[in-house]
Amino acid sequence: MSTEMADLQKLTIGKAINLGLRRAMEEDPKVLIMGEDVGKLGGVFRITDGLQKDFGEQRVLDTPLAESGIIGTAVGLAVRGFRPVCEIQFEGFIFPGFDQIVSQVAKLHYRTQGKVKMPIVIRVPFGGGIGAVEHHSESPESLFAHIPGLKVVSVSNAVDAYWGIQQAIKADDPILFFEPKKLYHSGAMKAEIDVDGTPDPLFESRVVREGTTATVVAYGPSVKVALDAATAAEDEGKSLEVIDLRTLSPLDLGPVFESVRKTGRLIALSEAPSESSLTSEIAARVQQECFYSLEAPVLRVTGFDTPYPPAKLEEHYLPDLDRVLHAVDRSLAW
């Protein structure tokens, strides 16, 4: 491990992913990074900054602007024993590679009865809040969580970002790794990381704030909104329990069920549109498992069922603290 890594104490999410990638590449020469502008530029968000300089152009590859080609090449590399990490520059650019992901990446392990593994990580900066143009602020994670054969992870903090990217790279299953782009370089999201510590299991959700009045479940960029809402609710005498899903497929809803049996109320929070979404699945599963514990219907606070709006309107589109608190009030009034 480099001296630079050992000396660091507080990291942003972006820096944590960068150092997680660096450590994975140091430990395994079969780990490759590929994507548009990931090399000399270091990625548009500078997440891969310095990696090509230190590991060379054979391991950090600048690709053509062709997502289908990036994913298709990664499939071939995985078959030959490599562990490719693909960066999709913005989540809205992933759809030219959707066929490769759904038809090949998700299926080859199953189709070959386990003989061919697909240790591919597809990094996806996602979500809004950066004032970007069309195709740069979307939340398509539910589409991939629906596909058998894929695992979907969404980190919300620097600790999970650092360890999660390494755990994903070591996995033999294909993993889509959704990263909250608006929080990449947020000083408020810095965290101390013990680089020699033991990470939590990748596919488990976590209670990040305990409470008794109502449960709020979120993931990715929405976790910060949930935590801010919990702090604000405390001033009103309400105690919100906040759960970070961390992984979207497989869903670990055990802690959610346990929390709802305690609070009797659930608000599911996400930037994605509400229809046929992860919040839909959470609501269905909770009413199935916790029906007799619920004091009110499961409420959802989400983006609207419209295409993502122009940047000047996104503050009205994205779920915020006030919308979460309003949902809590509605639940309590039931």
Automatic annotation (TrEMBL):
InterPro entries: THDP-binding, Transketo_C/PFOR_II, Transketolase-like_Pyr-bd, Transketolase_C. The keyword Oxidoreductase applies. SMART domains: Transket_pyr. The keyword Lyase does not apply. GO terms for molecular function: magnesium ion binding; pyruvate dehydrogenase (acetyl-transferring) activity. Its EC number is 1.2.4.1. Keywords: Oxidoreductase, Pyruvate, Thiamine pyrophosphate. Its cofactor is thiamine diphosphate. SUPFAM superfamilies: Thiamin diphosphate-binding fold (THDP-binding), TK C-terminal domain-like. Residues 11-186 form the Transketolase-like pyrimidine-binding domain. It is an enzyme of class 1 (oxidoreductase). This is Pyruvate dehydrogenase E1 component beta subunit. It comes from Amycolatopsis umgeniensis. The lineage of its organism: Bacteria, Bacillati, Actinomycetota, Actinomycetes, Pseudonocardiales.
